[in-house]
Design brief:
It comes from Desulfuribacillus stibiiarsenatis. This protein is an alpha+beta fold and 85 residues long. Helix content is 44%, strand content 16%. It has a single domain (3-82), classed as Arc Repressor Mutant, subunit A, CATH 1.10.10. It has three helices and four strands, in the order ββαααββ. The longest helix is centred in the middle third of the chain and has 20 residues, at 22-41. The protein starts with a strand and ends with a strand. 11% of the residues are buried.
Length: 85
């Protein structure tokens, strides 16, 4: 069995083709859902205010941007928008 290093917590986990370990994937999806629900209720929410309101760290929100799961309109201090799937 081969192992990989989690891109979030840096722990070893059995290689499964994903970038994150199962625990971090669960936490990541939960935080994403919380952020999505907050933005649905607070249209034009900024990163800082969304982080303060949800408890999701700014670096996690910015990782969602890098992963292209969300967009910022108006640069790094802009409003959060979600990709249409």
């Amino acid at each position: 069995m081969s192992y990989d290093i989690c891109g979030i917590c840096e722990r070893f986990y059995p290689k499964d083709g994903k970038d994150y370990c199962p625990d971090c994937r669960d936490k990541d999806q939960n935080e994403f859902n919380i952020l999505r629900d907050y933005v649905k209720q607070n249209y034009n929410a900024k990163v800082f205010e969304a982080s303060n309101a949800t408890g999701i760290p700014i670096n996690t929100i910015m990782r969602f941007v890098r992963e292209r799961r969300i967009h910022l309109t108006g640069g790094d201090s802009g409003s959060i928008t979600f990709r249409d799937k």
